[in-house]
UniProtKB/TrEMBL annotation:
Transmembrane segments: none
CDD domains: NAT_SF
Organism in which the protein naturally occurs: Salinarimonas soli
Protein name: GNAT family N-acetyltransferase
Stretches assigned to the N-acetyltransferase domain: 4-158
């Protein structure tokens, strides 16, 4: 199986990443959210310029398989996994893991002691399997729909170079 590669976000990626976001929401969240909730959530990428600005505002990584973008993740304020989405066709191929590993390494290298995620109900298990601990339940309103999320936190290991001698 091909291993995912990571690269930085480029402004030209916005339309494709918006499509990945929408496909992920529409096809992977049906067990946890209603159709109305999914439609409201997916509409967050309808304005590609605004979506691209959100991606550019954070540290965004794009995952590729054989040169094709199949997922992305964004780190906000060197603390929060703001976005992490994988195209449904690429689920189970290590894309989410590679993206999360990349964000965690970058945050630690920039001095973060912990990293957080506001995870959807369908993504919570992914984060807890990686050592994130639930902190609190949340509700967010998107397009007039209420969606439940969980804030999770994971301590990051300090690099050997940063340890006192």
């Amino acid at each position: 199986m091909t291993q995912p590669a990571l690269r930085p976000y480029l402004p030209a990626d916005a339309p494709l990443l918006a499509a990945i976001f929408q496909a992920s929401v529409e096809e992977l969240t049906g067990d946890d959210y209603t159709e109305a909730q999914q439609a409201a959530w997916a509409s967050e990428a309808d304005d590609e310029a605004a979506f691209g600005a959100r991606l550019a505002a954070g540290l965004t990584l794009v995952a590729t398989l054989d040169g094709t973008a199949v997922g992305f993740a964004s780190l906000k304020d060197n603390l929060l996994v703001d976005l992490l989405y994988v195209h449904p066709d690429a689920v189970g191929q290590g894309v989410g893991t590679a993206l999360c590993d990349g964000l965690e390494r970058l945050a630690a290298a920039r001095g973060a002691k912990e990293i957080k995620a506001d995870a959807s109900d369908n993504a919570e298990g992914f984060f807890t399997a990686r050592g994130y601990q639930p902190q609190r339940r949340n509700t967010v309103t998107i397009g007039g729909e209420w969606l439940a999320t969980t804030t999770l936190m994971k301590p990051l290991a300090t690099s050997p170079a940063a340890s006192p001698r």
